[in-house]
Specification:
This protein is mostly helical. The protein has a domain of about 45 residues: Histone, subunit A, CATH 1.10.20. The chain contains three helices and two strands. Strands 1-2 form a two-stranded antiparallel sheet. The longest helix has 22 residues.
Length: about 100
């Protein structure tokens, strides 16, 4: 059995149902092709022995030039909080999202 057959239209339809996605018929073929391409790539790199490869913190061997941290403008809390619906003790008050 060819590996691409493991990822077919039936599986794509099921994945769309599970992820609550709706695709046009014209999009299904393109997405299936893209997913099969990604799967082939992952299958190709899956068998590579990386035990002798030294870990990288970044793929490019270069230094990151950083600027000095400095303040540019001070934030006037009172001005911004004038626009807020509800504040208390200098904080923005919002409705409870998670019930205890």
């Amino acid at each position: 059995m060819e590996r691409d057959q493991l990822l077919n239209e039936e599986i794509l339809v099921r994945l769309c149902q599970l992820s609550n996605l709706r695709l046009l018929e014209s999009e299904q073929g393109e997405l299936l092709h893209d997913l099969q391409t990604i799967k082939r790539f992952v299958d190709n790199i899956h068998g590579v022995d990386t035990r002798e490869v030294e870990p990288l913190s970044h793929p490019l061997d270069m230094d990151q030039v950083l600027r000095e941290d400095s303040t540019v403008d001070e934030i006037d809390r009172a001005t911004y909080q004038e626009l807020a619906r509800d504040i208390g003790d200098g904080y923005y008050l919002v409705p409870r999202v998670i019930e205890p």
